[in-house]
């Protein structure tokens, strides 16, 4: 009898222990499973989840992870992303309805061979589709490839379509955008990040790094090729925020194109530059197409081709402020002479509210008889103050073709280069902002 009682007691104890273990497993919660999925961390700012493979990177887009924090701990070969979503590629992280709210630190490691089908994704496409007040930093993406064909701009847009592209009436939150790193940055920070590769889409707005920016882009760069059937830009297409210490290079091709920022809509562009070759069948700005904000201490050194419309070595259409900036650009245009064109070494059109000061233009301008063309601005309705251009390199004797040239001065190449330029370019701050070079054009001190 005692043996039977002992056996029943032992069975009961073992059963309770078994139930307790099962309960502990069932109640361990999804967070424990998530932590086991990543290489380490718990998703907080102080202890972010650790990422080392493409499957972990894709998992950031899951709803429960959108407000978490992540750090990359190894280079990621993203080649398997080509097979994700039944062969449609990587699914961008975050949407306008469910944005990414956390942080991602690339930690200086690379992400290579990422495959994204931009045609299949949400309104905003990129590695991160939509971020809101999030932080992305130290990210290095090498050679993003998408499955859309690399479309070239076409030249059969109607004048109404061109006017629509050039319209200033833009609701950025209704726009669809693509960026190599982020489709839409709403109030977030993108810093110390780099993208190299190619990006093409039939979407209206495409940029090398960030499609639309309302936050901060700092010390970030793009080198490669951007191609769009609409608006294309090297770094970000629409900017209402702040771009600082950033650059672009390579080739930009679209209906409306700019080397760095297509539209600076009341935003700031500071200490930034482009060396990208820019192609367009409508309008081009070497650095920016349309500026209604502030451009300060920035430059373009590039080539411009194939445009019809406003063309500027630095800015095509300016109704904001341009301060302490320059353009050394080769402008070669092939266009429909029946369309109005304003071409300038610095700006195509300086509109009524536009102001340009302590800036200069140099480089070659292809002579075109049908155009409003000049060394500084094809048309000026705004303010020029201590602005200069190289009459030799541009081949232009006039500062402005249409409008008021007051405040602009033409200098020969000998007068606008070398150490003597300090005496010839009055109003420039040669102590804090500018410096001369031995036998070249002046440069900005931050370029050192």
What are the defining features of this structure?
mainly beta; 448 residues
Overall geometry: elongated
Provide the domain count: 1
Uncertain runs: 1-31, 147-165
Query: Termini, distance in Å?
Result: 94 Å
User: Helical amount among residues, as a percent range?
Assistant: 10-25%
Beta-strand percent range = 35-45%
| Contiguous helical run count | 8
Secondary structure tally: strands: 46
* Major sheet details: 32 strands, parallel
Q: What gyration radius follows from the Cα positions, in whole Å?
A: 27 Å
Mean pLDDT: 86
Q: Could you say which structural class the secondary elements and strand pairing correspond to?
A: mainly beta
Ordered list of secondary-structure elements with their pairings:
Layout: H1 2-26, H2 29-37, E1 49-51, H3 54-59, E2 69-72, E3 76-77, H4 84-87, E4 103-105, E5 110-112, E6 115-116, E7 124-125, E8 128-132, E9 135-137, E10 140-142, E11 145-146, H5 159-166, E12 177-179, E13 182-186, E14 189-191, E15 194-201, E16 205-207, E17 210-213, E18 216-218, E19 221-228, E20 231-233, E21 236-239, E22 242-244, E23 247-258, E24 261-264, E25 268-270, E26 273-274, E27 277-285, E28 288-291, E29 294-296, E30 299-300, E31 303-305, E32 311-312, E33 315-318, E34 321-323, E35 326-328, E36 330-332, E37 342-344, E38 347-350, E39 355-362, E40 372-374, E41 377-380, E42 383-390, H6 391-394, E43 400-403, E44 408-411, H7 413-416, H8 421-424, E45 434-435, E46 443-444
Parallel strand pairs: 1-2, 2-4, 3-5, 4-9, 5-10, 6-11, 7-12, 8-13, 9-14, 10-15, 12-16, 13-17, 14-18, 15-19, 16-20, 17-21, 18-22, 19-23, 20-23, 21-24, 22-25, 23-26, 23-27, 24-28, 25-29, 26-30, 27-31, 27-32, 28-33, 29-34, 30-35, 31-36, 32-37, 33-38, 34-39, 35-39, 37-40, 38-41, 39-42, 41-43, ...
Antiparallel strand pairs: 45-46
